[in-house]
From TrEMBL:
Signal peptide: none annotated. It comes from the Eukaryota. SUPFAM superfamilies: Amidase signature (AS) enzymes (SSF75304). InterPro entries: Amidase, Amidase_dom, AS_sf. It comes from Aquilegia coerulea (Rocky mountain columbine). Residues 116-392 form the Amidase domain. This is Amidase domain-containing protein. One of its GO terms (molecular function) is glutaminyl-tRNA synthase (glutamine-hydrolyzing) activity.
């Protein structure tokens, strides 16, 4: 009894203290003779390096619903062709032009890629002191790629709408010869000799990489080894979410577009906070080779842009099967520019922004009240089990070697991954079975072509990522900040909403967002980083704190 008691107490942490004393006494011998040698052998083979860049799991998540739709051959989207666009007199105005507009200026040789690259590199350096959104300006490769883009155009070779367009990458995405820091002081000098798949896709489309942008440390929230990224619309706030740099830089006109990632809110939260349009695509749409991994069944890459049209252009360039990413596939998307939205039935939740509902209804969309019904009441817990255990498998050596002790925010990954260490494999798999039940219930409840609803509600963030469904974040307005300084301020709080579609129906969300933005101008507004007013100062420490990620579960 005395020998078994400590073990029985330990088993309570696993909700497994049901064994008899005689059975408990057998456990140490069995674990030492069988379990531990296997643990160590596996770790030696696949876990000696951090970040999950190699040896992906054979357990591959498939987000497809299998709705008996006939797949069609993937074709490039039919982008609109603008006309009568000229180079504005002020570089500030050029900084907030769309990718489509900038692409037209380059195609018609009204501006060179080298000049455009110079303008945006200048803005990155000018505003980064305030926003703390840039890790590295990739100046050398930027001018090399811009020069090549101009040379090709002089030779009559045009690669498409991204030809010569500058952009930034979240700093979990590997680019040779440049540091890929993962936002962490532990890895801040890390150089990975590999080209991420998404970087290859953009390079082949003629885009020009000008910066590695801030990721929260190990892709968690907005705290990184160099500081904490601020929201251009309100410098008293942090940008929140680990794709902080891509969101803030796009919002501030420091880049025309940027690539971020999401596992659980890392795109939706910063896009909403910084007032930019972004799409979290269907899981598996964009290959992730060369990208730091949190969870192989949750991680997604997507663009932050000026508008939904640009999102469609970027997604079209980066989608497709990555041969080294088992989860990626050739997802059969229709052309969002050819969707007849008057044939769509779109639901709206109780928390939807009604302006979006009214605008889409006026455009001929059949808008109906809607509610997603599902019985799974542990959605947030399933997300955390999945994300944290997967993350720990990719950073096992990091935790074992005590590197978590110098992590930038001790109440984030260090705390969560210690908890993950005592999640039994059997209960991790039970969580995946519950996830499967959730997916089936969402599929059966999804009786509309798309729905409009709050994009930062934590339950929806968890549900959407577990299901793998796409959502586009759309700016819908502004409201006054709380506790404005005496004398007034131009700082604002952005209002956004989400347009959700079933997996592999990203084109529907894009088409609806483009329709909404065709008659509104919220997405065209510029944050007041150049005109803060006499009462606005840049604080050393922004005063508005963002609460930590919540974990709610019904028991």
């Amino acid at each position: 009894m005395s020998e078994a008691l400590p073990l029985k107490s330990a088993l309570q942490l696993f909700d497994a203290d049901f064994f008899s004393n005689s059975k408990v006494k057998e456990l140490p011998k069995d674990a030492k003779e069988f379990n531990i040698p296997v643990f160590r052998a596996n770790r030696k083979m696949v876990a000696s390096e951090n970040g999950g860049l190699h040896n992906p799991s054979v357990l591959v998540f498939n987000s497809e619903w299998g709705m008996n739709e006939v797949p069609h051959k993937n074709k490039k989207f039919s982008y609109p062709s603008p006309s009568d666009i000229n180079v504005p007199e002020k570089e500030e105005d050029m900084a907030f032009m769309s990718v489509i507009e900038l692409g037209y200026l380059i195609k018609t040789k009204k501006i060179t890629s080298q000049k455009l690259t110079e303008i945006f590199l200048h803005r990155l350096k000018r505003y980064n002191h305030t926003l703390e959104a840039v890790v590295t300006c990739t100046e050398d490769v930027a001018y090399t790629q811009a020069k090549e883009a101009d040379k090709l155009l002089d030779q009559g070779v045009y690669l498409g709408p991204l030809h010569g367009i500058p952009y930034g990458l979240k700093d979990i995405i590997s680019v040779p010869q440049y540091k890929t820091t993962w936002g962490s002081k532990t890895f801040q000098n890390q150089v990975l000799d590999m080209e991420a798949w998404v970087y290859k896709r953009l390079k082949s489309a003629g885009a020009v990489l000008i910066a590695k942008l801030v990721t929260g440390s190990l892709a968690y929230d907005d705290i990184w080894f160099g500081g904490r990224t601020r929201n251009p619309w309100n410098i008293e706030e942090f940008s929140t979410g680990s794709s902080a740099g891509p969101a803030a830089s796009t919002s501030a006109g420091m880049v025309p577009f940027a690539i971020g990632s999401e596992t659980a809110g890392s795109m939706t939260y910063p896009a909403a906070r910084c007032g930019v349009t972004a799409i979290r695509p269907t899981f598996g749409t964009v290959g992730r080779t060369g990208v730091m991994s949190i969870s192989e069944s949750l991680d997604k890459l997507g663009p932050f842009c000026r508008n939904a049209m640009d999102c469609a252009v970027i997604l079209d360039a980066i989608r497709g099967r990555d041969p080294d990413d088992p989860s990626s596939k050739e997802i059969s998307l229709e052309d969002p520019f050819l969707i007849d939205i008057t044939k769509l039935t779109v639901g709206y939740l109780e928390d939807a922004e009604m302006e979006v509902v009214d605008v889409l209804a006026a455009k001929g969309v059949n808008m109906v009240p809607f509610k997603l019904n599902y019985t799974v009441d542990s959605v947030q817990g399933i997300l955390n089990f999945t994300m944290d255990v997967d993350m720990l498998s990719h950073f096992d050596e990091w935790q074992r070697s005590g590197q978590d002790d110098v992590y930038e925010a001790q109440d984030q990954w260090p705390l969560e991954l210690r908890r993950a260490r005592i999640i039994p494999a059997v209960d991790y798999l039970q969580a995946q079975r519950a996830r499967g039940k959730l997916i089936r219930e969402i599929r059966d409840s999804f009786t509309v072509d798309a729905f409009v609803g709050n994009v930062t509600d934590w339950e929806k963030v968890c549900m959407g990522n577990l299901v793998g469904m796409p959502v586009i974040i759309v700016p819908t307005g502004f409201k006054n900040i709380t506790k404005p300084p005496p004398g007034g301020t131009r700082r604002r709080t952005t209002i956004t909403t989400g347009i959700y579609a079933p997996p592999q129906h990203d084109h529907i969300a894009l088409a609806l967002a483009m329709a909404y933005q065709s008659v509104t101008d919220h997405h065209k507004q510029r944050p007041p980083i150049d005109d803060l007013g006499p009462n606005d100062t840049v604080p050393n420490h922004p005063s508005v704190n963002i609460p930590p990620r919540q974990w709610h579960i019904h028991v």
